[in-house]
Structure formats: structure tokens, C-alpha cells
Amino acid sequence: MRSPPGGLFERIDGSIDDLVALTCDLVRFPTVNPPGEAYTPCAEYIANRLRRSGFDIRFERGTDTPGDTDRYPRTNVIARRAGRRPGPTVHFNSHIDVVEAGEDWTFDPFAATVSDGRIYGRGTCDMKGGLATSIIAAEAYIAANPGYDGAIEISGTVDEESGGFGGVAYLAHKGYFSKPRVDHVIIPEPLNKDRICLGHRGVWWAEIETKGEIAHGSMPFLGDCAVRHMGAVLERFERELFPKLAEKRTAMPVVPEGARSSTMNINAIHGGQTDDYSGLPSPNVPDSCRMVIDRRFLIEEDIGEVKGEVVAILEALKKDRPRFDYAIRDLMEVLPMLTERDQPVPATVAQAIRSVMGKEPEYVVSPGTYDQKHVTRIGHLHDCIAYGPGILDLAHRPDEFIVIADMVESAKVMALSIDALLHPGT
């Protein structure tokens, strides 16, 4: 790795107040997804910031993607700053959407409270702190080495929390994450400052519907309760499927430890009387019950096998349980993926971690998917990792925070990585 440009680390150390203010400003945009609040003003804020640093700006709306409406436009921002001579392009991609705040917060989730060396708020960790860190790293690098080769890109994209279809997937289809435009991608997801995330487990989302027959609630024997049928499905899952999943283990370095097994989350169940009625409930036997499952699977598993385990239970119930009938619908599937450690980005970031922190990086795999899947499978760009300063276990939780000192160290890692990737072999 090249010696860092003169004054690079000093510039980052001198930008701590700016880093904190930038992170706070980003958190104060309540970009909650769903439905996709405040995407456009947040993207415009990022654009204005980077335009002042000499970046060319483009906005791309993810038209005709899930959730995109005139009220909730899927507004993405892509900033590019070319160097003095042609060369590789390094791209930092961060999503600007956040999940709902939920309950049990000590701090206002969108006030961005600074306390005891931390910034608290929804999105600080996942992943507006990482976005701010990449901006500070790029700006410091440009100031220290204005004659760099190649180009630096920073994007703020939408909808990662709901699959990324209006964000990175849309942009990848338009060529924003493919050669020759881009060579190297770093996604500052919160995987801890000394970890390099090489990929993720697979995911299969599906909706299962059990069917029944409507009747008066005082005479349920004249109908067929779909909710009871769903109860039978849950009982079979508990007895047969969940123990089987817990026994499966992967050789991939998935974190945390519990995610090295296959898992399935019951995401939602809806049946019968809706919860938005006013007045007294209607006395009906429910004729439909729907359950959404979130199945995370291992690189050692085949997607057909994953689906087959669920279908086999449903088919067995159809034979064993009177009047049982069902339908199943795929919602989303993503295969597991793993970037090789000797690719330029993971190798370069590893060396930067050694230089900044004086320790060996830990190579990990994410328990959940993130936008690397679209960069690789749509953009066909395989030199892509997740690396960011946030603490993985804090994502989506009450009192989410990011440690300011971690962002500073990560900014130095990112800045060193920019220099090495833009000037390979020197």
C-alpha cells in the first residue's frame, strides 16, 4: 500500500465536528421505509454537500418500482468526481432509507442526539453514519491529493430495507454499477470497523394462505376456520421444520454465531377481522388467513430444497387434515453470495485496517442481504464488499447509535483504500 498523501489523517482528525454535524443532519431526515418519507430532500442535501466539493450530480428516480409514487418518489443521488487523468473508479454506496423507529427509545429517534462520544438516532448505525464517513473520507482525500487518477463516486440510494429495487437494483439495470463506469464498490453497512463483510446468506420470502369457508360466528361448525388451519401449519413448523433448520450449519463466517444456522422468521399473520374496523366486530368465521415467512438459508443449501421443505409440510397437512387447502406465493428470493478475499477491494481494505488499527481484520458474512446482491448479479461487478463503522447488533434497535471515534478510524481506512484502489501497483 502506498504511503498516504501528506496530511490525509490530519485532515480527517480536523473534520470530526463536520463529520458529527453531517451525520446529525442526515439522521434528521426521517426517511422511513415504508412508505419512503423524505427521500428527495435527503438526496438533495447530499447533492448540495458534494456539489460544493466538486462532484458532478445526477438524480435518478426509480420509476415503476415498488412503492414509487408522486407522493413517495424513489429519488436516488449519484455524485462523481473525476481526477486529472483516466483510471479506475471507486464507488461508495449507502442507502438513505431507515426502518421505523418503534418503541422504547430513550432519545428522540430523529433528533440526532450527541452524548458521551456517540450519536443516537434512527439510521445513525444503519447506515447514515457510514454515508457521512465515506463523504468525509473522500473529501479529505481529494483535499490532500487533488491530482489523483481515476474517479470517486458516492451514491445515496433508496429502499435497501425493502429489497433495494427502487435503488441499487434500478441503477444497476441502468449501468451505474458495471464496468467500465465503476471498478470497485464499498458499501458502508454497519458490520463493525475492523470487519470486512464478503457477502450474505440467501433469503426466500413467501406468503402462505390457508383457505376456509365463511359462516356465522355463532355457528362455526357450518364454516371452516382458516385461522385454525394456519395454527396447524405453525404447529408443524414448530415440531418439524424449526428443529431441522437449527441443525444446519455453514462454513461461511456468518455473524452473529446464531446466524450460522438456517433460520426462518414468521414475519406476519393476518386472518379474519381486520384491525382497522370501527365499532363492534363482525361475527364471521374467517375464510382466509395469510402468513408471510422470511427464510434465511446457507450457501450449502439449494433454493429448491429450501422451498421444498415448506411445501412438503403443507402437502402433508392437505392429506392429513380435513378440508385443509392452501396457496403459496413467492415474494422475493436472493441466493447466498461470497466475494473472494483476494479481490482488490477486500485485500486493499484489509491492508488499510492493518495500517490504521494495527490489527488483522475479521472476515465476516452478513446474516441478512444488502445491496451487494444487485451490484453483483445485475451489474456483474464482483469486486464489492460491505465495510462501515456501525456496530451490527445495534441496527434496527431502540436507541441505535454510532461511536464517533469509530467513524474517524473508518474514514481513515476508507481514505487509504481510495488511494490504493485508484493507483494499483504503486
Report on this structure:
The chain is of the alpha/beta class and 426 residues long. Helices cover 32% and strands 24% of the residues. The longest helix has 22 residues, at 226-247. It is elongated. The model has no long low-confidence stretch (mean pLDDT 96).
Write out key terms for the chains shown.
single chain, 426 residues, alpha/beta, Aminopeptidase, Alpha-Beta Plaits, 6-stranded mixed β-sheet, 10 helices
Broad CATH class of the largest domain: Alpha Beta
Broad structural category: alpha/beta
Note the total helix count.
10
As for the number of domains, it is 2
CATH homologous superfamily placement of the largest domain? Zn peptidases
Strand content: 15-25%
Q: What's the overall average pLDDT, rounded?
A: 96
Number of strands: 16
Relative helix content = 25-40%
What is the gist of this entry?
The chain has ten helices and 16 strands.
Break the fold down into its secondary structure elements and pairings.
Layout: H1 8-13, H2 16-27, H3 39-52, E1 56-61, E2 75-82, E3 85-95, E4 113-115, E5 118-120, H4 124-144, E6 149-157, H5 168-173, E7 184-187, E8 195-200, E9 202-211, H6 226-247, E10 263-271, E11 288-297, H7 303-320, E12 326-334, E13 337-338, H8 344-357, E14 362-366, H9 372-377, E15 384-386, E16 401-403, H10 404-422
Parallel strand pairs: 3-6, 3-7, 7-15, 8-14
Antiparallel strand pairs: 1-2, 2-6, 4-5, 5-16, 8-13, 9-11, 9-12, 10-11
